[in-house]
Batch of 4 targets.
Target 1
Amino acid sequence: MNDKEIIRQAMCRILDRPVNSLSDDVALETVGDSLDLIELILELQEELDVSFTQDDFSGKDTVGDLITLFADCVADRQRATESEA
């Protein structure tokens, strides 16, 4: 399972939604209210041990955008860890 699918499954678990309900093209505004999205982002950051600023989320409108943002950050962290070894 790749990072994107792991992140999608975590999103579904946090939001208590079936995996097939969060395809890449689903608008974030339809996933939940703003508090749900904040909770989702905070929990994902904690689970994945990454952090973002509010600006990092600018222009992120879909589930796919959010998954890509997190997956790219996880991949960057993994590459940095590997280069240190």
Target 2
Amino acid sequence: MSFPYGEDPLQAKDRPVLVVATETRSALVRKITSQDQSRRPHEYDRLPREASGLTKDSWIRKSHDTVLLSSFRRRAGWVTTRV
């Protein structure tokens, strides 16, 4: 999934997301980052790699974004435990 990166909306970065729900053309997602967010517990939850299929421990944003289903590039894995 490609999301704007930094302040420049023309620059984007591929980023894994957790799909929370889908509708006909859109999905409700939570962004995932590998950058340590332990100092922002009100904004992020820890996501162990064992639970996500990702290559390293990550952090998942508590807030949701709505994106078009056509924005997805590939499926990276499945979450095996409740986050």
Target 3
Amino acid sequence: QNTAIFDKDEFLDRMMDDKDLASLIATEFMRNAPELLNQISDHISRDNPVEAGHTAHSLKGSAANLSASKLVDTTFEMEQAGKEENTVKLRELLPTLKILYSELENALKSAGY
């Protein structure tokens, strides 16, 4: 199941099988993540890798709450690239980040969140 965009069983375990809490966390993620993605993109386009990395860190925490390991891995790479002030790497990772977010959003909706 580690090839899935998120691990629903692990997510529910994390939420102590509280389906209402899981729904709240998933809804908040879908409400807030697009703005974080926009901020990351804006920081990259303005050649501000450190801020892009900080914002990726915030998105990483939200993705971790959802047990979305692929998104966690990509945001971690972006966070590190930000610390290294590596705008080129951030630009390379941005399309992957957007695809993974889209896949996660679709998976969450398919799972009923």
Target 4
Amino acid sequence: MVVAPHPDDEVLGCGGLLSTFCGREQALLLVSVTDGEGSHPGSLAWPGERLRAAPLESRAALAALGLDVDRVAWQRLPWPTVAWPRTKRSWPMRWCAACAPTTGC
């Protein structure tokens, strides 16, 4: 399981590790914790259209690493970047509730 804050961060942070899963994609779970679209509100350099392209860029990067992207399990949690309270106590409960169908938590 690779947990990343936004779509495309899994490749940026763990690309070398992910490349070792070629042929074993079914053993891999990628989780994007937020959708990333709220990360640059009002930015001209990072408009929503550009941020929405991140999952497509991730797929292309994973394919470039040699992975069969259609066999990789990818959980994209439907929260905007700023939706979660920053208190540490709320994270485990929200994480477990969001990933329960995938992890069996």
